[in-house]
Amino acid sequence: MGKVTAAITGIQGFLPEYVLTNKELETMVDTSDEWIVSRTGIKERRILKGENMGPSDMAAPAVIELMEKTNTHPDEIELLIFATVTSDLIFPAAANLTMHKAGIKNGFGYDINAACSGLLYALATASKFIESGQYKKVIVCGFDKMSSIIDYTDRTTCVIFGDGGGAIMLEANTEGLGIQDSILQSDGVGWKHLHQKAGGSANPPTQETVANRLHYVYQEGQPVFKWAVSKMADVSRDIMDRNNLQPDDVAYLVPHQANLRIIEATRRRMEIEPEKVMINIQKFGNTTAGTIPLCLWEWEPQLKKGDNLILAAFGGGFTWGSIYLKWAYDSK
Questions:
Q1: Are residues 208 and 270 located together in one domain of the fold?
Q2: Cα dihedral 227, 184, 240, 42 sign
Q3: I need a surface site. Which of 44, 110, 119, 316 has the fewest CB within 10 A?
Q4: pLDDT at 221
Q5: How far apart are CA 322 and CA 120, in angstroms?
Q6: Strand pairing partners for 173?
Q7: Nearest 5°: phi and psi at 125?
């Protein structure tokens, strides 16, 4: 029997129904469609509406459909790892809530908070449980309800983010498919450029923090952009070099959907053709931990068994990383 790897055997996305367009944003803040598109590439994004709704309310239906697609009984799921920065509650974890709503009773789950790199961190972590032989079926979720922490009077951030994400099934594989390598990194020096000022234990919620609008995403665009361009591009090239991959060997780059200019810088550093890059930021915006699974879900019909994919992300913290995987199935 060959080496055990963790392979993606199914994926299911979820997108809220409500579409927030650039035209609607023009009525909310001092902005324009041209200003937004020229700086980000985003034309619209999805927003989760409804009382007391959180990421688990998007993840649960996706997980249920994923299990149906992969002919998996809920009792077969041994672990669920949930990447998010907007968990429904401080505790319990969104993973716990999702498992309950999806009828998963025979495993355990927990959340990973690594901002926009969270999906990569979760995939790499989940893969080790499978490679060790301890588990055979693990679900990784990447969902965020960014609208819950966005200040819709701040045009620099409210135009960027949306809600949504996807659920990924990982299973043991001995054909040489699945996750081949990962490079994950972080540097806390960048925290001051991208964070939420209040709501944690260091600065708990008070009337003053709410009045001062400190419970929203705070971002200093220029330093975040410079770090993202450098780190996401470099780590993607590094994982290619480490695995002796040439540009022609890569079927697709699956980049975090933060900004078209960051994605283009990564593509150029990898020296791959534009048609090999998954891009849907124009439709969904930046869904943080949800962007990469949404790309994989949308491109799933085009993927072929054995395709080499490079996943890359950069997020607050700062966090960044890349995963090299071989796609494990032909779409039915």
A1: yes
A2: negative
A3: 110
A4: 87
A5: 7
A6: 5
A7: -65, -45
* pLDDT above 90 (res 2): no
Count of CB atoms situated within 10 Å of the CB of 44? 18
Domain membership of residue 125 as a residue range: 5-176
Q: Per DSSP, what are the bridge partners of residue 31?
A: none
Interaxial angle between packed helices 291-299 and 118-131, expressed in degrees from 0 to 180 and rounded to the nearest 10: 70
Q: Are 217 and 157 in contact (CB under 8 A)?
A: yes
Domain final residue, candidates 160, 176, 192: 176
pTM: 0.97
Instruction: Please indicate, yes or no, if residue 265 is contained in any of the structural domains.
Output: yes
- Residues with active-site annotation: 116, 256, 286
pLDDT tens digits for 238-267? 999 999 999 999 999 999 999 999 999 999
